[in-house]
Automatic annotation (TrEMBL), chain A:
InterPro entries per record: AA_ABC_transptr_permease_3TM, ArtM/GltK/GlnP/TcyL/YhdX-like, MetI-like, MetI-like_sf
Native species: Dankookia rubra
Record's keyword terms, sorted: Amino-acid transport, Cell membrane, Membrane, Transmembrane, Transmembrane helix, Transport
GO biological process: amino acid transport
Presence of the UniProt keyword Transmembrane in the record: yes
Gene Ontology cellular component terms for the protein in this record: ATP-binding cassette (ABC) transporter complex
Primary subcellular site in the record, as a coarse category: membrane
Entry protein name: Amino acid ABC transporter permease
Residue ranges of domain ABC transmembrane type-1 in the record: 28-218
Membrane topology: Multi-pass membrane protein
Domain of life: Bacteria
Family to which this protein belongs: Belongs to the binding-protein-dependent transport system permease family. HisMQ subfamily.
From TrEMBL, chain B:
Main localisation: membrane
The protein, known as: Amino acid ABC transporter permease
Compartments where located: Cell inner membrane; Cell membrane
Record keywords: Amino-acid transport, Cell membrane, Membrane, Transmembrane, Transmembrane helix, Transport
Family of this protein: Belongs to the binding-protein-dependent transport system permease family. HisMQ subfamily.
MF annotations from Gene Ontology: transmembrane transporter activity
Gene Ontology terms: biological process: amino acid transport
The organism of origin for this protein: Dankookia rubra
Cellular component GO terms, alphabetical: ATP-binding cassette (ABC) transporter complex
Bilayer topology term: Multi-pass membrane protein
Amino acid sequence: MSNWDRFLNSFFNARVAWDYLPKIADGFVLTVVLALCVIATGLAAGLALAVVRALGVRPLNWLIIFVVDLFRALPPLVIIALLYFGLPAAGLSLSGFAATWLSLSCVLMAFSEEIFWAGITATPKGQWEAARSTGLGFLATLGWVVLPQAVRMVIPPLTNRTIAITKGTALGSVVAVSEILGAAQAGVSFSFNPTPLTLGAAAYVVLFVPVVILGRWIETRFAWKR
Amino acid sequence: MTLDDFLLAFFSLEILEQAWPILWQGFKMTLLLSAIVVPLGLAGGIILALLSTVRHPLVRWPLMAWVDLFRALPPLVLLIFVYAGLPFAGFEVSAIGAVAIGFFLNTGAYYGEILRAGIESVPRGQQEAARSTGLTRWQTMAYIVLPQAVRNVLPDLISNTLEVVKLTSIASVVALPELLFQARQAQSVTYNATPIMAAAVIYFILLWPVVRLLSRLENRQLAGGR
């Protein structure tokens, strides 16, 4: 058998691919579910923190800044390890899915809070003053006048950050979540053939290349006007 | 569970004392790893950014596909693919070799995008003026365009470098004895979460100043410039 045949037989083995396709497909669905959960909770929490920060209560803001800094400085995998391997020592067990979801949500919360906050502070003061002078309350001003402009402004960095953090779902494989990478690795050790990894990589490409291209498009479409 | 139990599980001084020597080794390994992969990624990024100045479609399209591909694949997937997959193709790679290859491909693509944006932000007149003084194309790039490009995207470069240093924690998955790996080892021997907690604290102490600096740079960018 030539080297080339051996290569094809290893990485593009049709029989192995056929056997493990269903497992990878399940992993694909789980990855998508996990990613959507992370995006929903992470962005909601980030926006909530930014709104609380806009209230301008000093001690509260210091706390928010500290939490945001904390989750920007810690590697996501360290947070996952702490929740998954550490919490049982305190008598509390989280599933791998819950640990990954919670960890990535915290990370996305931190990054998105920074970005939302940047948008809020970048909205001209006159917008606040004009809205308040028409009789709108603080929250009404924030919700109806400031946030719509702020969010529009920060869509490009927000999209990029969300994509980057969502790719962290692959870290779930470390704590026994059988998302794409986990399913692929299991496939490799059962079949002793790397084809499931090729399939896994292809699944990520199918999932994320459109997202990356969408991110590129959004970046030009919503680019800050100078 | 009482507070004492909690402290014992997460902040036990006794355990910390036992685990400290290997945590310290892990910390040094993390620094070494960062010192290898950051320059490697930067080198890859500069190559990609320079290639992006070539307008020929035979360069442009493959380059874009390359960058999008490696931005779409989660770094852990790339690492596992290199580490677990290459041996099947007849190449034995060590853990550190796999990390170097994976990071070169992944972080190179990110640095490349940032530097490309930087190069595009330098007005064309700069190049024309430099060329008209008799500088060659490469001299113009090296002495005139790149320094300004780097300055324009410095916050993004620092931010990406922070992400790369955090990302070295995934090397624990291929049994490279960096900080997280050592902490996991110590945790599984002692069945106590203190080592992982200690690793998190070390990461935070190491990276918090960078996060603060970034926060400040980003705010300044918002306040001025735009």
